[in-house]
Design goal:
Number of strands: 5
Radius of gyration: 12 Å
Bound molecules: zinc ion
Number of domains: 1
Helix content: under 10%
Low-confidence stretches: none
Mean pLDDT: 90
Strand content: over 45%
Length: 59
């Protein structure tokens, strides 16, 4: 089972999606506007995978 929550992308501020994947106890945040990706374990809050393009490249 998974539920999808609409959030603001922390990287670019556009609309992004947060997927709560109950079976695997993962929370996956992804933005289609800037390819931001963050996968955390919803049990321990540990970051499993994170990718934020352009976060250091803003001029
Ligand atoms: Zn974004």
């Amino acid at each position: 089972m998974r539920t999808i929550q609409e959030i603001r992308c922390p990287n670019c501020g556009s609309e992004a999606e947060r997927h709560h994947i109950v079976d695997s106890k993962l929370t996956r945040t992804q933005c289609s506007h800037c390819d931001y990706l963050m996968v955390t374990c919803s049990r321990t809050n540990k970051v499993i995978e994170a990718y934020a393009p352009g976060i250091y490249a803003k001029s």
